[in-house]
Design brief:
globular, disordered C terminus, 9 strands, 5-stranded parallel β-sheet, about 40% helix, two-stranded antiparallel sheet, Rossmann fold, single chain, alpha/beta
Length: about 280
């Protein structure tokens, strides 16, 4: 069925001050937004996320997060800074980040892009395979040139020299071009470089410095939405929030005389893993 306003031409006639002119039809704008959202790589699990359906259940940190997210979307394309959302798993960091991305795409016609950090690095590594036809630059160019980039779960990737240099290239390019970026991470922004569970230890001094200039850091704390019963509501989230305790994080002592960047870290499944930045590109 064709559009009754423009007959599918994408232009409609309007009258103002006794003069006729043509403007873009709403159907064209909606179609453009749909195409841009389809290209934004938003995972199916998060395609429902909006700023309006984010539940804060009286949680001040989440209310503050929504307010900052709305302000970024309203001020785009020229916000002062992007956002860096920190907090434990399940508090809604990805929901907020995707909601900002969708709002900017729908209302401003921006070119937006979502990537989980580990998935992005995996896609880049695939370009080294001679069977894969895409080049590294073809993958990186949209990431570095997107009007708004969401880089989810920063710090969760296995660290290496190649990972550090690749992420620094992305961050530095977007920093230099003043392109807006929204990051999320489960790691605390503590200034201790020896704490394996600190963001600084995961990403390094150089990137952390850039990020603090690029983004406004927001700490979110609350219930884990994934623990909510199927028929649960805001009241249940309030109860979970009160019961939830931040996990005890053990700072493991570094071995005397060991290289500065070689450290043991306590993985999520309870095993100890050696974090070492050296190695071949892509390892």
């Amino acid at each position: 069925m064709s559009c009754p306003l423009c007959d599918d031409t994408g232009w409609r006639t309007v009258e103002a001050d006794s003069r006729r002119r043509v403007v873009r039809c709403d159907c064209w704008r909606e179609g453009l937004a749909s195409r841009l959202l389809a290209d934004a790589r938003i995972p199916r699990r998060y395609q429902h996320c909006t700023l309006d359906n984010f539940v804060t259940y009286g949680n001040e940190s989440l209310e503050r997060g929504v307010a900052h997210a709305r302000r970024l979307a309203d001020e785009f394309p020229a916000p002062d800074r992007g956002l860096f959302l920190l907090g434990p798993p399940g508090v809604g960091k990805t929901h907020l980040a995707v909601a900002v991305l969708k709002a900017v795409v729908r209302t401003k016609g921006a070119r937006g892009l979502y990537y989980d950090t580990r998935e992005l690095l995996r896609v880049i590594r695939q370009t080294y395979d001679p069977v894969v036809k895409a080049s590294e630059s073809e993958v990186l160019r949209p990431v570095m040139e997107a009007d708004l980039l969401v880089l989810d779960d920063l710090g969760a990737e296995k660290t290496s020299e190649w990972v550090e240099e690749t992420l620094n290239l992305i961050v530095n390019t977007r920093y230099s071009e003043r392109r807006t970026t929204v990051f999320t991470s489960n790691y605390d922004d503590k200034p201790d470089p020896t704490d394996p569970d600190a963001l600084l230890c995961r990403i390094g001094f150089r990137m952390r410095s850039r990020l603090h200039e690029m983004c406004e850091f927001l700490d979110l704390d609350g219930a884990d939405y994934r623990e909510l019963p199927p028929n649960g509501g805001p009241e249940d989230l309030q109860v979970l929030w009160k019961l939830r305790k931040r996990p005890v994080r053990r700072a493991l002592p570094s071995k005397a005389g060991a290289p500065a960047k070689a450290q043991l870290r306590d993985t999520r499944d309870g095993r100890l893993d050696l974090k070492w930045p050296g190695g071949r590109a892509g390892t």
